[in-house]
Amino acid sequence: MEIIITKDPAELGNTAGKAAAELIRNTIEKNGSANIILATGASQFETLKQLVLEKDIDWGKVVMFHLDEYIGLPESSNASFRKYLKERFLDKVQPLKASYLVNGEADPVIECNRLNSIIELNPIDVALVGIGENGHLAFNDPPADFDTLEPYIIVDLEEQCRKQQYNEGWFKSVSDVPAKAISMSVSQICKSKYIICSVPDRRKASAVKDSLEGAVSNLVPASILQLHPNCTYYLDQNSAALLSADFIHKN
Known about the structure:
single chain, alpha/beta, seven-stranded parallel beta sheet, 8 helices, 10 strands, 32% helix
């Protein structure tokens, strides 16, 4: 586990985006292609902004998977993560070798099966993720299922998660936030060779502390990343504000 604390969200995104780009370049050079996971949400704005600016990435050799999507939400909605990734990433880089977005409007069981059959043939090299205010990883809210080996699963969104989506401005009210989603599972995320976890903002400070300093527990799903051999956390001064000085010094 490595922790990099930056001044603000812009510096965080710049640093994390450059690191992601370097990992993708190196993987392509070594393997001829790279399989990546991209997260969405406000925490990823600056990281993706930097990633699309990076030069010398042969995106035609990159396969992209999408972390999660609300069930039943049309792609035309401003809250759609498919819309998010198209506007903030896919439309800004050269065409990828392949991109697999989660279709929340499809039958969720059939959609999970579709994605599962694809990702099982494409081991992930680099995953970009964040941490929710409730400590969730993707849409794996507490208590998360740490045992399932299914790559994509159907999940219930708990109240704090739904409030976060509303407070970030994606929905007009909490009641408008869908109660269910398709999410990449915790076990699948942890199969990634490298994980870049971008977490800006003071509102995430408690979740950051619990995820990094607390025990590994499905009540704090992102705490599982403590066990990953190649996970780097990119924080800003606000999101790192509650970490103890001893912990920061040790890491």
